[in-house]
Amino acid sequence: MALATILLEGLAQMGAGIGAGIAAIGAGIGIGNIGKAALESIARQPEVSGDIRTNMIIAAALIEGVALFAVVVCILILFV
């Protein structure tokens, strides 16, 4: 019985680590894509660069918030 508990605890820790890593990688890719699209849009229409920049920052902040939430959930899995 004790071996099964240790095994399940180890799997939970491994899953939490992998989940936190995937969340961070996904957020990095998402923010990179937003930056790429924003720069292409500004290059095509420089007169609306302020609006594009504002929307880019808001979208990046929302993605960052979701990634932080995912990492916090993974950390809670480790300690609960």
Question: Can you tell me about this structure?
Answer:
The protein is mainly alpha-helical. It has a single domain (16-79), classed as F1FO ATP Synthase, CATH 1.20.20. Helices cover 92% and strands 0% of the residues. The protein contains 2 helices and no strands. It has helices at residues 2-44, 49-79. The longest helix has 43 residues, at 2-44. The model has no long low-confidence stretch (mean pLDDT 92).
Provide key terms for this protein.
2 helices; rod-shaped
Short description:
With 80 residues, the chain is mostly helical. 92% of the residues lie in helices and 0% in strands. Helix 1 (2-44) runs antiparallel to helix 2 (49-79).
CATH class: Mainly Alpha
Query: What structural class should be given to the helix and strand makeup?
Result: mainly alpha
- Please count the helical segments: 2
Distance between the termini: 20 Å
Rg result: 19 Å
Q: Characterize the largest beta sheet: strand count, sense, and whether it forms a barrel.
A: none
